[in-house]
Structure formats: C-alpha cells, structure tokens
Request: fold
Amino acid sequence: MGQVKQILIVDDETAIREMIAVALEMAGFECIEADNALTAHALIIDAKPDMVLLDWMMPKMSGIELARRLRSDALTADIPIIMLTARDDEDHKIHGLEAGIDDYITKPFSPRELVARLKSVLRRVTPKGIDQVVEVEGLRLDPVSHRASSQGTALDLGPTEYRLLQFFMSHQDRAYSRTQLLDMVWGGNVYVEERTVDVHIRRLRKALGDRHQYLIQTVRGTGYRFSTQTQ
Amino acid sequence: MGQVKQILIVDDETAIREMIAVALEMAGFECIEADNALTAHALIIDAKPDMVLLDWMMPKMSGIELARRLRSDALTADIPIIMLTARDDEDHKIHGLEAGIDDYITKPFSPRELVARLKSVLRRVTPKGIDQVVEVEGLRLDPVSHRASSQGTALDLGPTEYRLLQFFMSHQDRAYSRTQLLDMVWGGNVYVEERTVDVHIRRLRKALGDRHQYLIQTVRGTGYRFSTQTQ
DNA sequence: CTTCCCTGTAACATATTTGTCATATTATTG
DNA sequence: CAATAATATGACAAATATGTTACAGGGAAG
Reply:
C-alpha cells in the first residue's frame, strides 16, 4: 500500500483550510496548513509534502507566484500543485498552465470532487517503479511475485490478463484504443484481431469479479480505460 | 514564453495599413501586409500568419469572400480573422455570413482598441495542447481519460456528442456553419444531411443539462457557437 | 505422447449510436 | 399580425459497437 500522502493546504482563510483539511483527512490524507505563500514556501522546503493545494488569491505573494518559485527550484519542481481559483477566469488558467500547474479547481467545489481530482493527479504524477506494488481499492498487483489479489485473495489470471491488468494499473484514468492496447500489452509486432482485445477484457473482468469489475471501463467508440471514478 | 505573433493586414488603403502596422508593432507584433485579397491569400498560404486583419470592402475579391475561402481550406481554417468594417456596413455584420469570423472592428477605431481585441482573440484561439484539459464554468473535458463532467459529475455523451463538445471547447467564441461542423467533427468525406447537425446539437444540449446548455448557442442563419458570453 | 491451460477467432446476442423524417416552436419580415 | 423561414424536438429503424460464448489449435509440463 502507498504511504500516507501529506498534503499542504495554502489559503489565507482559516475556514476554508479547515474545511479542506477535514475532507482530506477523512479520505486518508495527512494535512499541513499555511495561511500565506511565504510560510508555505518554508514549509514545503522543510516538510516536502506530496502535493500542494494552493489558493490563487492571497495577500503578499500570490499563489501563482509561489507556483513559479516552486517550479524553478529543482528541489520542489516535482511537487504537484493544484490551484484553487475563485472564478474560472480564462487568463488565470492560461497563466496557471504555463506555470506548471497540474490541475485547478474552481470554488466552490465539493469535497468529493476535490478528493477525486487530488487522487487523480497523485496517480498521474507518482511514478510507478516497474517493480512497485500497485494497489487500488483493495485490488493489488505485485510485479515481483507476479501475483494479483482482490481483498487478499489471489486472482486467477492468465498471462495476458495479468499483463493487461498491470498495464492498466500503471496507466490509470486514460482511455486506450484497442490498437494501443495491442501495441502496449501484446507487443508491437503481432498481428491479432482488434476484437481479441474485447475477449481478454471480458476474461479480465470476469476474473476481477463483481468487486472490481467497474475499474475496467468501456469507452464507447474509443476503447477501454482503467479508473476508480464512475463513468 | 509566447512567440512573437505575426499579423497579416489586408486593406487596399496604404495609409490605413501603415497606421495599423505601426500600432501593432508598438504592441510587440510582427506585421506583413497585402493590398488585395488575392495577394493576401498567397501570402497566408506562404507565411502562415497567426492572425489576419481583413478589410470588408476591397476591389477584386471582397474580404468576406477571402474569409470564406480560408475557412473552407483545412490548412487555413484555424487562422483567426478579425474583420474591419466601415460604419455603414454594420448590417453585414448581422446578416452576413458570420461563420468563422472571430471578431469585428468598426472603423474608425483606436489603436488601443484594436490591440486589445486582437490580444483577446489570440488568447482564446491559441491552440491548447491537444491533450489539455479544458474547463469552462464547471464544465470540464479531459481528452486523456476521454471524459466530460459537469460540476464534477460525469456526463453521458455519445461518441459524436463528445467529439462535438471537444471541438467546441477548443474553438470557443466562434460561429460555425453546419457544413463546417460536419467537416471538422464528422470528417471531410462523409455525406450527411446538414440538419443532422441540429439533432446532435440537441443531444449535446440535453446531455449538458440546464446548468450548461447556454454555452451552445444558435446563430440564426449561420450555425452554432460555443461561448460563455450571453448572446 | 497426453493432458491441461492459453489464445485467437468466429459467431451470435445485446446495447448504443446515428442519420432522417415529420411535426412543433420560434424568430424574422413586411 | 400574418406569412415565411429557420430551428428545435421526438420518434424510429438501420447501422455499429461491444458483450459473451464456444471451440479448435498450440505449446509446455509431465
């Protein structure tokens, strides 16, 4: 299982910080807080959080300015940043993207949405070592022992299904076409019918059982996707 | 950051061209000029400017005619166009084929105004990375995971509606004719009734729900447009 | 050589999407 | 306000895409 992730919340309004902190802690994250960009900067260098939630508008140094600084320092350049913006002003977004923001959320937002986005960014950014155990909602895949299990019980997967699952679990929230899957999972130089993918998807789904089927999602007209979020 | 943008000024009056060129160069743009639509067309294909400032009334080929040609060629379809119209052409603005024109400026205009409008158009047209998440007023489309959501809840879109929405969200504030939409969203070589577009617009609107319907706007006599601004 | 497990395909079953039409609605024009 | 043109909408059948199952052949293990 992944470490507990530490999230730094930067916002000048205490009420908002608390609200976010509660939501995140309920979702199993650890939170630290800062009420201005300068404090935040010091804290980041000190505590190296796994992610920074950053309010756009703040006294002294703006969120965007802090983001730039973090990006320009190699020590902090890899820490993902999610921006909290009051209104979704086009300009802000453009500048935000330039400054290397990973995502932004427009206030007001629901705790559910916040947590979902946060997880999504973390998943995207956290580099999975090729031999790293991946676990998602009780579904666990261990590349070293070459085993997959659901709620602790081993799953019975064929070799292809195993590779498919491994690929999916290390490339979540991303839609792949059948052709892409054939390239990535089967290998570039095999000639196999596209529809064959469907069959293996079916076998994988069956093996995952009701508990985890939903993770393998059909993207109609496109292909398939692995995601914890509802379609 | 951004490259220096190159603007093509098309007007038969040298004095006006010069005036505009000076204003734009002071604002940090690079200018090229043409005194008639034919020369302009060649120049556009050759130099691929980032934007075309086009006089409505010109000898030989009119501005509107040139605009039409640019729009119908995939190579030039994305180059933004700002029309320069004399006051008494005002009607044209309303009646005329406004599909594909990004903005109008009525002569006489102040350099300040021109530059402001131009920047505004460039800002919204500037190609967002093809895989970039687009979000507008809580409506969000993520090309990577191939998902659209409204206020955090997933939207149920058919493939065509998805493509339509993606096209609109990356080409905002610009009216498209049904034919253009068929070309851009359906693909150039399909024969489909123009009216079919209406039906898919309808489906898209329905899927967007009350919260976001207003973004898909009918431009009577012309086609449709995606914009946050009220009609 | 046999047995057993995997695979890829084909065939059939379902589910969704799509393009059109006919019919309302709504805007425009005189 | 009536006449007319342009859109909106709902329904449907045809076309597509995906789900599912069965099966034959390949290959590894014994």
Notes: The longest strand of chain B covers residues 6-10. Chain B is about 40% helix and 20% strand. Helices of chain B lie at 14-26, 37-47, 63-72, 90-95, 111-125, 159-169, 178-186, 195-212. Chain B touches chain A at residues 1, 123-124, 126, 132-133, 135-138, 144-147, 151-152, 154, 156, 158-159, 162 (CB under 8 Å).
